[in-house]
Write a structure and sequence with these properties.
This protein has eight helices and seven strands. It is α+β, with helices and mostly antiparallel strands. The strands form two sheets. It has a five-stranded mixed sheet. A hairpin with an 8-residue loop joins β1 and β2. α3 runs antiparallel to α5, α5 packs antiparallel against α6 and α5 packs across α8. The protein starts with a strand and ends with a helix. The mean pLDDT is about 95.
């Protein structure tokens, strides 16, 4: 395959960025999208040019590091992570636009790399449980009904890639935050901090500068792990309940 790549190049958050055009040839349809970018970078290095900076780690669709907007879609045309997107999703001769996540809370570090530490701070605000240290408790010590366990596992699948933010027209982080809140709040281990968790994490999300949610649904459509839009509704109910209880104290 021969492709024309229009890639966003930006030295740092303070510098102006622009699209640069590159031609790549000999691309196999079995390559992943990141392997195609590796090929481009090898050619740039051989020419003495600066390679394109992009995030990646496990390349197995698990870590959430890969974060590219491809032809206007977060992670590209398939509902998967960028590392699991293969070049057979494109045709020979295609022009592909490659950009970083676009959100004020995700400042550009360089080229296609953005700083997603805002997600880390949301987790630090309450995405954990306090539990005594020591030996692991007996597996059946805290029975969990199967519907609750299924609900928790569904939300725990969130890998924090940020596609929901990139896809949202408002740059909201509600789907990510709701996934992290809901998967702990439904479990007995998360019950002691149920109210403080939702209040603290939503407050931190707002402080980070993410946009407001208007439930357009683009976040759930782009999520490679299929976190449902109803997750946001569940979090909103938790937040309202916690806010009312806090106001009575």
């Amino acid at each position: 395959m021969k492709l024309t790549l229009r890639v966003w190049r930006q030295k740092n958050a303070d510098a102006d960025g622009a699209m640069s055009t590159y031609e790549v040839d000999g691309i196999s349809s079995d390559m992943s999208f990141l392997e195609m970018l590796d090929t481009l970078n090898e050619e740039l290095i051989l020419k003495g040019d600066d390679p394109v900076a992009f995030d990646h780690d496990c390349r197995e669709g698990i870590c959430g590091a890969c974060s590219l907007v491809i032809n206007g879609d977060a992670h590209g045309p398939e509902r998967t992570t960028t590392c699991q997107l293969h070049m057979r999703s494109f045709a020979d001769g295609d022009t592909i636009d490659i950009e970083p996540w676009r959100a004020s809370a995700f400042p550009v570090v360089k080229d296609l790399v953005v700083d997603r530490s805002a997600f880390d701070r949301i987790i630090q605000a309450g995405g954990y449980i306090t539990a005594p240290t020591g030996a692991a408790p007996e597996a059946h010590a805290a029975p969990v009904p199967k519907p609750d366990a299924d609900f928790a596992f569904e939300h725990a699948e969130c890998i924090g890639c940020g596609a929901c933010v990139a896809a949202c027209p408002n740059g909201a982080a509600m789907l990510f935050t709701s996934a992290k809140i809901n998967h702990l709040n439904v479990l007995p281990q998360g019950a002691p901090e149920r109210e403080t968790r939702v209040l603290d994490m939503v407050s931190q999300m707002d402080d980070e500068g993410f946009g407001g949610c208007t439930l357009t649904g683009e976040c759930a459509t782009a999520c490679p792990k299929g976190i449902p839009l109803m997750s946001i509704t569940g979090m909103n109910k938790e937040w309202l309940r916690a806010t009312r209880r806090a106001s009575r104290r």
